[in-house]
Amino acid sequence: MRQEQKGFSLIELLVVVAIILIIAAIAIPNFMRARMSAHESSAAASLRTINTAEMSYATTYPTVGFTALASLGGAQPCTPAAATGCFIDNFLATNGGGGGKDGYSFTLQTAASLSGYGTLAAPLTLNQSGTRAFCSDQTSVIYYNVGASTCDSTASPLQ
Questions:
Q1: Model's pTM, two decimal places?
Q2: Sheet holding 142-146, edge to edge
Q3: Is 28 helix (H, G, I), strand (E, B) or coil?
Q4: Which of 50, 90, 97, 125 could form a disulfide with 73 if both were Cys (CB 3.0 to 4.6 A apart)?
Q5: 100, part of any domain
Q6: How far apart are CA 130 and CA 108, in angstroms?
Q7: Number of domains in the chain
Q8: pLDDT tens for residues 63-117?
């Protein structure tokens, strides 16, 4: 009389592990693409927020004009002033404490005159946190440049 075996054989376990690895090989690249797409959407939305904040700041403080990124925010509780405009979240205003926001670093350059500014959202790691760099200026048009960490108004406009 044969005794009944309990448990799984080594072959059965290997088949299950192989199936899990195949599913992971299909799912992980899709997850990474979705994550990069979310980072790019967040970067474009953050540039829109910065554009709106710059226009509001220049309207509120016309003698100062456009300002640096840090002056658009302020620590909570924020008191509006020329140095702390309180127009955007302080996390974005401080560029995520220097480490970026959602896989992108943000820089803002103001012109010597009161007439303009330029913003850049560059992926922290190209092709991992994003595949496009975004930029904008006082016209509030957002441009993108595929496969680069730089961008200017000669790039493609975001639709």
A1: 0.81
A2: 104-110, 117-123, 132-137, 142-146, 156-157
A3: helix
A4: 90
A5: yes
A6: 19
A7: 1
A8: 888 888 889 998 889 899 988 999 999 899 988 777 889 899 999 887 655 678 8
